[in-house]
Specification:
The protein is an all-beta fold and about 270 residues long. It contains no helices and 16 strands.
Length: about 270
């Protein structure tokens, strides 16, 4: 998932500080990228997730991080004949918890406006990796993964307004026959006025293709093996008070393999304690 990051590049929250967010995320797709990168149609499927994201400063250099998708609804619309209106395939839905992430971020360097840290995130297989009439209504991938990243960020002035930029690279070790992955991303944001942040992101996942599971998936997925993509997104975050705010996000894969080829939308309510 995508979340709002403060502009001062202070990756570590500081002891006792925190950032907490309740979000709703939606993706509805009737087409997907194939394993060759082409776009093919599929039966319209949707993924709606309600989640909690939190960061808490254990010390000035160590943060605890968690992401909990406490309700994920995977659904497929009924298939209706365009000639006689008959139902060709009934609609279906599965509701369950998704895969929970927990992690730690450790600050390595913080000097002037520059910060460098490393993050270890563990993906717990708490969701359903097989559900529905054909087993493809997944709310998780069924594997335990470990993603370690190196993160760097800096704050600066842009057009006399507070701004920031940050980047990361990482390796995701996956189990249960899934291929390992190389991750990278960049993000930049600017503060407009006293309460509004506007930011843009690019994220990429690249498979090492060293797993044993088949990558075939006729419907697209967000949990299949050998998924690859480059996504771009934009987000606005508005502080209603000095601590409480709302955010809206749009993200879309501009290229990919074995993943849905439609944008996702999310909105959230966050609490920023510092």
């Amino acid at each position: 998932m995508f979340f709002f990051q403060q502009s001062d590049a202070q990756w570590n929250k500081g002891k006792g500080n925190g950032y907490y967010k309740i979000s709703a995320w939606s993706l509805v797709a009737n087409q997907h990228y194939t394993n060759t990168g082409e776009i093919d149609p599929n039966a319209t499927r949707g993924n709606f997730t309600l989640s909690f994201y939190g960061e808490y400063g254990i010390s000035n250099k160590l943060d605890f991080i968690t992401y909990v998708p406490f309700l994920t609804r995977i659904y497929q619309n009924a298939q209706i004949s365009g000639t006689n209106g008959n139902v060709l395939q009934a609609g279906e839905a599965v509701n369950a918890i998704g895969d929970i992430d927990v992690g730690l971020r450790y600050g390595l360097i913080k000097k002037n406006h520059f910060a460098l840290s490393t993050t270890l995130k563990l993906g717990l297989p708490t969701g359903k990796n097989k559900a529905g009439s054909d087993g493809s209504f997944q709310t998780g991938d069924g594997e335990f993964n470990q993603l370690i990243t190196v993160d760097a960020g800096t704050s600066y002035q842009l057009f006399s307004k507070p701004a920031y930029a940050k980047t990361y690279i990482g390796i995701n070790n996956r189990t249960q026959g899934f291929s390992d992955e190389f991750h990278y991303g960049i993000e930049s944001g600017i503060k407009l006025g006293n309460k509004l942040w506007v930011l843009a992101r690019l994220n990429s996942v690249n498979s090492f293709k060293n797993g044993t599971l088949s990558a075939q998936n006729s419907q697209g997925s967000i949990f299949a093996n050998n998924i690859e993509y480059v996504s771009v997104g934009a987000e606005v975050a508005y502080y209603i008070t000095s601590k409480l705010g709302v955010s809206l996000n749009y993200t879309s894969a501009v290229s990919g393999r074995i993943i849905y080829a439609k944008p996702s939308y999310s909105g959230g309510l966050f609490l920023d304690i510092q």
